[in-house]
């Protein structure tokens, strides 16, 4: 009976919560709060309760525990362990399913904003590396893009075109030598002495902007320094707009009148160079830039509607600014031919009549344009009216002619006498240039692709063209300037009057 009473009493007594669970369903876990409430209970009762508990688990082995006080902690050999209290080592008893508790340290989660910043930094570095490598590849493929490799060209007038000048040829030949024995309908053999085998140029849509040789004139020096007009600045009651065209010698901007948006002009900024030419004109106390002086001469009444008009010009310490007529909307004849589809003979005749009037007006005023080509002609889109522009290469016509080394026009329009003789004349050179221009308007490509073709080759023309058009081009592209048509004969040709 005493054993049964003690057992009941021990069941009522609080039992310390263990780290493991009993397999017997009759035992219930004691809440930790109840353990804290009964701390002041008798230690002897606790020992009895533990003994009864262990007897139920292991009836064969009884472990007798004795109460232990904290007096042993006062012993001098016992030293406290510094730092936080260590977790007690758990003891697994027989029949107990024991699991080692994992002491998990709190995991540190990085800040999402820090991760995003690091990702952006890595991405930015990768992009920089990519573009750096791309620039290095481009510099290797195109050395001209590397400023460390390419040096600015030096002005050497005597070394620019010596390889283009060939020995003088006797261009005075008999008509029997000029007339070809057999002429196919689509081939035009240029008249004049031809030495060596006939070379057939490859037909390709090449615009006049693609030069055969060097486009820089031999007696010119590249502008130094480069001058430009800031966009939005005011130049003589005109606000500077977007850039229209840019070349080696000038930049052209669109200008809008500050009091009327409908008034448009072209603002041409020309930097001063050591090779600039100046002319004396009436009404000015000192010489004027040749381009300005010749445009003023051409603008005197009666003027020609097919030549751009110079409204005003300004000069400062480093540049000239030309305020000129700007028809809008417009585009160059070169762009019009390339992007507006095939041009009929009727429309080509309309264009040639206007260009011919502009060239005749220049000759009547004693001016040689010097660079007639499709890029230097503007086409007003709504009326198809042409304007001859860019008089940078213009000169006063001389009866003695010009030195061939001073030719500054486009290489694709170069007359053969410039390549084979020491002197060329303005009228014959302009007739040759007009024939090349007519060929380009109709065929949409240039007749010659090399200087050798200009001197010795022949041109292949569209067989669908009229006989009059073939005849006009044939007689204007005669290699002997004495046998070419004059400007007056060109105007009176039957194709021009059709």
From TrEMBL:
Gene3D superfamilies in the cross-refs: Phosphorylase Kinase, domain 1, Transferase(Phosphotransferase) domain 1
Query: Which GO molecular function annotation, any one, does this entry have?
Result: protein serine/threonine kinase activity
> Where does the record place Basic and acidic residues bias?
1-14
Q: Where is this region: Disordered?
A: 1-24, 169-190
Residue span(s) of domain Protein kinase: 238-496
Give the highest taxon in the source lineage: Eukaryota
Q: Which UniProt keywords apply?
A: ATP-binding, Kinase, Nucleotide-binding, Serine/threonine-protein kinase, Transferase
Q: Which GO terms describe its cellular component?
A: cytoplasm
Substrates-to-products reaction catalysed: L-seryl-[protein] + ATP = O-phospho-L-seryl-[protein] + ADP + H(+); L-threonyl-[protein] + ATP = O-phospho-L-threonyl-[protein] + ADP + H(+)
Concerning PROSITE patterns, the annotation shows: PROTEIN_KINASE_DOM, PROTEIN_KINASE_TYR
In the record, biological process GO terms are:
negative regulation of apoptotic process; regulation of mitotic cell cycle
Its top-level enzyme class, in one word, is transferase
Stored InterPro entries: Kinase-like_dom_sf (IPR011009), PIM_Ser/Thr_kinase (IPR051138), Prot_kinase_dom (IPR000719), Tyr_kinase_AS (IPR008266)
Q: What does the record give as EC number?
A: 2.7.11.1
**Sequence similarity:** Belongs to the protein kinase superfamily. CAMK Ser/Thr protein kinase family. PIM subfamily.
**What name does the UniProt record give this protein?**
non-specific serine/threonine protein kinase
Record the organism: Cyprinus carpio carpio
